[in-house]
Design a protein that fits this description.
With 42 residues, this protein is an alpha+beta fold. Helices cover 29% and strands 48% of the residues. The protein has one domain.
Length: 42
């Protein structure tokens, strides 16, 4: 992670998902998002 990136936790469907801000844009960690969605289906 470079000095231009910051990391936060966001809530999605009541689950914590890591969120990284890079060059002013927010990005969610795909593995956290997929696990949350797959657990909801199961």
């Amino acid at each position: 992670m470079s000095s231009e990136e910051t990391s936060n936790l966001a809530l999605f469907e009541g689950k914590r998902i890591r969120q990284v801000e890079h060059q002013g844009e927010g990005w969610f960690v795909i593995t956290d998002t997929l696990c949350t969605c797959l657990l909801r289906i199961a």
